[in-house]
Specification:
Helix 3 crosses helix 4 (103-109) and helix 3 (83-97) crosses helix 6. It contains twelve helices and eight strands. It has two domains: 12-78 and 147-281, HAD superfamily/HAD-like (Rossmann fold), CATH 3.40.50; 83-145, Orthogonal Bundle (DNA polymerase, domain 1). Helix 8 links the parallel strand 4 (165-170) and strand 5 (192-195). The protein is of the alpha/beta class and 285 residues long. Strands 5-4-3-6-7-8 form a six-stranded parallel sheet. Strands 1-2 form a two-stranded antiparallel sheet.
């Protein structure tokens, strides 16, 4: 099954005109256009990039910058090590309503809401409903095996301490969220949660991120997304929000995430935090 790494051209990094995370002032040039300051940053050479914890961030078209106000975080595969648990739950559920589905194919679809995932493997409303119910049942038995990914709890705490609004924007089901918030020690820290239950459509539609922006009172220029799948990046792109990615979801390579629109790709949330995220997106003084 082909992966849907939708892109309308160059990686999103080229659209934002950002330099490498590890050198936020490298090659910076400022030009004045109609009273607005536009920032361009030159590319970092490949040898330097291989030594950096962040991803390649290439130079391209510029965009007026705004101070980041809200950080929209995906959960499964980004903050919580639960993608493989979802794969197993779906494999069991789909095998009961039809032919067995290879786990590798299921893994590529994790990050979508169940309403978008099921049509990839199941035909008919009755079979889809049965598979969805079985997935919930099997995942509830596995969820306790999930744990926060490296740097996840620390990233949330650091963002809040630095004055950013943290919103969890996820395709996770409502019944899963209580345990996630407890595991991440995030209940009294985050500004709120927007799940597939709140939005008209789940990822990769942009509705979840759009609703999070609305609730945060932030413009798309004042927000940034962090996710682990091409579906997170596709949704962010459609919502007009910049997005960074982490590799902890396991289904997609750095190149695939860049192609899908990530302006930077990190090993995990710990690397994201070490790089000073999201300070590299804020205008230089």
């Amino acid at each position: 099954m082909a992966r849907k790494c939708h892109d309308n051209g160059a990686p999103l990094a080229q659209q934002w005109g950002l330099s490498s995370v590890g050198d936020s002032n490298a090659g910076k040039q400022e030009t004045s256009t109609g009273g607005e300051t536009m920032v361009q940053r030159a590319t970092v050479s490949p040898p330097a990039l291989r030594r950096m914890p962040g991803a390649r961030i290439r130079r391209g078209r510029t965009r007026r910058q705004a101070m980041i106000k809200a950080v929209l975080l995906d959960i499964d595969g980004t903050l919580m090590d639960t993608n493989y648990l979802h794969v197993e739950a779906w494999a069991q559920a789909l095998g009961e309503v039809g032919d067995p589905v290879p786990r590798a194919l299921i893994h590529e679809q994790i990050g979508k809401g169940s309403d978008k995932l099921l049509p990839e493997f199941v035909e008919g409303e009755e079979a889809s409903q049965k598979a969805s119910e079985l997935h919930k049942e099997y995942y509830s038995e596995l969820q306790d095996r999930g744990q926060p990914l490296p740097g996840a709890k620390e990233l949330i705490s650091s963002l809040v301490e630095r004055g950013y609004e943290v919103w969890l924007a996820t395709s996770a089901e409502p019944e899963e969220l209580e345990q996630y918030l407890k595991d991440l020690e995030a209940e009294d820290k985050i500004a709120g949660v927007v799940s597939s239950d709140d939005a008209e459509e789940s990822k990769p539609s942009p509705d979840i991120f759009g609703l999070a922006l609305e609730r945060a009172g932030a413009s798309k220029e004042e927000a940034v997304v962090v996710g682990d799948s091409v579906w997170d990046l596709e949704a962010a792109k459609e919502a007009g929000v910049r997005a960074a990615a982490v590799l902890t979801g396991g289904a997609f390579s750095r190149a695939e995430l860049e192609e899908a629109g990530a302006y930077a790709v990190y090993e995990d949330c710990a690397a994201l935090l070490e790089a000073g995220f999201p300070e590299e997106l804020n205008p230089s003084e």
